[in-house]
Write a structure and sequence with these properties.
The protein is of the alpha+beta class. Helix content is 34%, strand content 12%.
């Protein structure tokens, strides 16, 4: 979504999850982490920060079973993706969610999302299989047998240089992995 740049409101997703989890401590209310999930490792971090489950809209938008139209563009397969805050979704009924339910003139709507295309990823089974494998690996590295144990994980801040170093570097990838893309 574009809320943080359009409205100037919001915080990085992992910080939001952590802060809300702290506020919910002792209430018995499970937190659903929503947003910012691009890799299976992001699922691990969202759960470790206090989530009990995650929303995977963007990650699953490119699967065969997703409702978006399949598009061929420059010889590659894509799926149409429409965020709930996009102008297209608002015109179809989501505008009340953004306090614009009474607006009838589409030119006066202020979208907080986009419509786009995402790379085709294969079947839901194939994508979820890779996500589960990454989640299991991350939990194993943290010594966590379940989500409650994962909530005890320690975080270390890394710099932008550290993020770049976390990805393959100084090489040309010759064979793509099913669970990794630099884009």
């Amino acid at each position: 979504c574009t809320t943080r740049v359009v409205a100037g409101v919001g915080v990085p997703q992992l910080s939001a999850i952590y802060d809300v989890a702290k506020a919910l401590e002792g209430t018995g209310v499970p937190l659903i982490a929503d947003g910012g999930i691009r890799y299976s490792g992001d699922i691990v971090k969202a759960l470790a920060a206090g989530g009990y489950s995650v929303m995977l809209g963007g990650m699953l938008a490119g699967v065969e079973e997703s409702p978006g139209e399949t598009i061929i563009f420059n010889g590659r397969k894509f799926k149409a993706y429409r965020g709930m805050g996009s102008l297209e979704a608002m015109e179809k009924g989501s505008k009340d969610r953004y306090f614009q339910g009474n607006e009838v003139d589409a030119k006066k709507l202020v979208p907080e999302g986009i419509a786009a295309r995402v790379p085709f990823k294969g079947t839901l089974f194939e994508v979820v299989y890779q996500m589960i494998g990454g989640l299991r690996a991350g939990m194993g590295y943290c010594g966590a047998k379940d989500i409650d144990a994962l909530h005890q994980a320690q975080f270390t801040r890394i710099t932008n240089a550290g993020v770049l170093e976390s990805h393959p570097h100084d090489v040309a990838i010759t064979s793509e992995a099913p669970n990794y893309s630099r884009s």
